[in-house]
From TrEMBL:
Keywords for this protein: Actin-binding, Repeat
Protein name per Swiss-Prot or TrEMBL: EF-hand domain-containing protein
Domain of life the protein comes from: Eukaryota
Cross-referenced PROSITE patterns: EF_HAND_2
EF-hand domain span: 21-56
Entry's Gene Ontology molecular function annotations: actin binding; calcium ion binding
Length: 126
């Protein structure tokens, strides 16, 4: 779980590469999101961390960019892709809250990660 979380942080622009400085930063972050040292990061801990750590206006854009990578550069993502790429609790959280994607190129099971990402960092009940 920690390695997947590290990959996610790297995709969001955090400097947690495998060197002394990166390891120290990753340890700091893990202390926040996994205070019991269980080796797992819950999706709620991730959301809380991102809410505290990011105050710039690019946050939703950064999350959209991360989802775009997971979706293979498509404007939508499927539940199967989310389940393959994210830990189960994160995938199910996203699937339950993402609206259907209604673009012309979308299969019936397509989900709208862009509106989800925008709502996640806006005024929303997600």
């Amino acid at each position: 779980m920690a390695e997947e979380f590290k990959a996610c942080l790297i995709s969001l622009g955090y400097d947690v590469e495998n060197d002394k400085q990166g390891d120290a930063e990753f340890s700091r972050i893990m202390g926040i999101v996994d205070p019991n040292n269980s080796g797992a990061v819950t999706f709620q801990a991730f959301i809380d961390f991102m809410s505290r750590e990011t105050t710039d206006t690019d946050t939703a854009d950064q999350v959209i960019a991360s989802f775009r990578i997971l979706a293979g550069d498509k404007a939508f993502i499927t539940a199967d892709e989310l389940r393959r790429e994210l830990p189960p609790d994160q995938a199910e959280y996203c699937i339950a809250r993402m609206a259907p994607y209604s673009g012309p190129d979308a299969p019936p099971e397509a989900l709208d990660y862009m509106s989800f990402s925008t709502a996640l960092y806006g005024e929303s009940d997600l």
